[in-house]
Amino acid sequence: MGKLNLTALRVRQTAINQAAAGKIKKIPQWVDVVGDIPPAQVLVRNQPQQHQLFRQRIKTDRETLEPKVVFQTQEKRVKPKKASRLFQPVEIKFEEDQLRKEFYRDHPWELARPRILVETSGKDFEKHNWGRLQQPGKKLDGESVVQRQLWLLNNTPDITKTEAYDIARREFYQLRLQEDIERRVAAEEAEATGAEFGPNMLSLGMELEDKEFERWKEWAQMEAQLLNQKAASFSGAPESAESEDASVLDKGVEEGAAVTAEPTTRRSLL
């Protein structure tokens, strides 16, 4: 390794020496400021301290049989970083991140619901009591399930993460079902009083599917005609595909005429 370049640390002394030697006519104005507030002399940067991620749990003491707050380490001991990542900032982790990841992995369609992107202050616990899932002034979403599960983990003795997840998820399903019933009843009441709604999403989807099916049917007929023409050209048959289709169509018309004429004949015999 080469020598350290200390030119930046000696910039004030260099400016003073140049003024004394007559290379510059006037000393720069920043010389006194750099003298009062010199640059840092430490050339070695210390590695940032790696913090462990702790979680709060309530365990029942075996001796006293009373609930007791216990802080557990969520992850193993953090290994030292590589030399290329030595000076990167410490990654910030919270227990809610893993709970949120698991919930949206099991319920991906919850991310498709419209949400209001409002930055929170980080003090939601002061105005929300997650002893219950539904909170006044807050829309029910996946974040409610995450906070409810975390509250159960921090306040219920001897509860596992799976049990807390099942409890919060069951409450979430019940509230979602209640919202669907209220929405359906409101729509029926509005229709009873004369309101008219447009086609729903199911009707629009069926309409698009029918259009796509008709387009595919036209494409399939053209492909079938091309295949028949290729087969006729390879086999050397004098009759083309169009004549075959015409003959089949004429035969179908004759059969239809015979079927329609049969009831008339029976009626004349009677």
Question: Can you give a write-up of this model?
Answer:
The structure is a single chain. With 270 residues, the protein is mainly alpha-helical. It folds into four domains: 8-39, no CATH class; 54-81 and 93-192, no CATH class; 199-238; 244-270. It is 52% helix and 5% strand. The protein is built from seven helices and two strands. A two-stranded antiparallel ribbon has the order 1-2. A hairpin with a 6-residue loop joins strand 1 and strand 2 (67-73). Helix 3 crosses helix 4 and helix 4 packs antiparallel against helix 5 (161-192). The radius of gyration is 40 Å and the shape is extended. The model is unreliable at 259-270 (pLDDT under 50).
Descriptors for this entry?
270 residues, mainly alpha, 4 domains, two-stranded antiparallel sheet, 7 helices, extended, disordered C terminus
Report the span from N to C terminus.
117 Å
Instruction: Please tally the β strands and state the result.
Output: 2
What is the subunit arrangement here?
single chain
Mean of all residue-level pLDDT scores: 80
Spatial strand order of the main sheet: 1-2
Question: What is the overall number of helices?
Answer: 7
| Low-pLDDT ranges | 259-270
Q: What's the main sheet like?
A: 2 strands, antiparallel
What is the CA-atom radius of gyration, in angstroms?
A: 40 Å
| Structural class assignment | mainly alpha
**Approximately what portion of the residues adopt beta-strand conformation?**
5-15%
Helical fraction:
40-55%
| Helix/strand order, N-terminal first | HHEEHHHHH
**How many structural units, i.e. domains?**
4
Shape descriptor? extended
